[in-house]
Write a structure and sequence with these properties.
Helix 8 packs antiparallel against helix 9. The strands form two sheets. The chain has a seven-stranded mixed β-sheet with strand order 3-2-1-4-5-9-10, with helices on both faces. Strands 6-7-8 form a three-stranded antiparallel β-sheet, with no helix packed on it. The protein starts with a helix and ends with a helix. The chain has nine helices and ten strands. It is 31% helix and 20% strand.
């Protein structure tokens, strides 16, 4: 769905869109795109902290210049943008992601280093078409790939072991959203209310939160397959629409071990 909105803005409006991509050092940064070819870098899920840099300033200038702007980020980043702008812009659309929390870039860098690969990777993915795989690449060559049950960094992420401290008390982990639209995976779809279509490649949950969001959704709805579901079903499948990720029972032990032995040893001991 994110791709649909990015493409819609770039095809149909005088616009700039903003999203996240990893650089060659595997640091996640926001960047600006004005061409359809550029938005491919924004694809796939990314489970580490993303850096805003000058993005808010650039967005404000684009808005002042009369461009339509689409910003997709975590709820705290959308809220940060709204606070920075400090006024309503009719030519801005924000989409918040249903976020579990994020670990520090330091942890990701240290973990990759601990794998002792023969060469330095320059790209990574956390999700394949159907599975949760942490995969590191050098150009188009796979250097390392393990699923979420086998890779301890991925398991630590899914278990909520090492997020930023404030993620565990996130005020945005609620069904009351800050973005005009909200996007995530529709976990639990069809478990109680039948869903009579193929779910094999995944289904997005899309929450329409504002009148502005409703207008843009109506502009794209003819080129997507969608089905209206209850908000209760979406909330039931996504814990972060009810409360923040709960702190792992070994969180304090992890921090203690990390300070003494480094990341890999701390992960191995706390995830036994």
């Amino acid at each position: 769905m994110a791709s649909i909105f990015y493409a819609h803005f770039l095809k149909n409006k005088t616009s700039a869109v903003y999203g996240c991509s990893y650089d060659n050092n595997l640091q996640l940064n926001f960047s600006r795109a004005t061409d359809l070819k550029e938005i491919r870098k924004f694809k796939t899920s990314k489970y580490s902290i993303s850096y805003i840099g000058n993005t808010y300033k650039n967005i404000r200038q684009d808005l002042i210049n009369g461009l339509y702007v689409l910003f997709i980020g975590t709820p705290c980043q959308v809220s940060g943008l709204n606070n920075f702008l400090n006024k309503e812009y009719p030519n801005l659309l924000t989409i918040d992601l249903i976020c579990h929390g994020v670990p520090s870039q330091i942890y990701l860098d240290e973990y990759i280093k601990s794998l002792n690969l023969n060469t330095q990777p320059n790209s990574l993915t956390f999700r394949g078409k159907k599975d949760f795989f942490f995969t590191l690449y050098k150009d188009n060559t796979i250097l390392y790939s393990k699923n979420s049950d086998e890779d301890i960094f991925y398991k630590a992420f899914l278990d909520g072991l090492f997020y930023r401290e404030n993620c565990y008390s996130c005020e945005f982990a609620t069904s009351k959203r800050v973005g005009d639209l909200s996007l995530g995976d529709f976990w639990g779809l069809g478990d109680e209310i039948p869903f009579n279509y193929d779910k094999q490649d995944g289904v997005s949950v899309l929450l329409v939160n504002t009148e502005k969001g409703k207008i843009v959704f109506n502009e794209v709805k003819d080129i997507i397959f969608f089905e209206k579901r209850t908000l209760e079903e979406a909330i039931k499948g996504n814990e972060q629409l009810k409360h923040p990720t709960r702190k792992h029972k070994n969180y304090d032990l992890f921090l203690k071990l990390y300070s003494e032995f480094g990341l890999k040893k701390a992960l191995e001991e706390t995830l036994k």
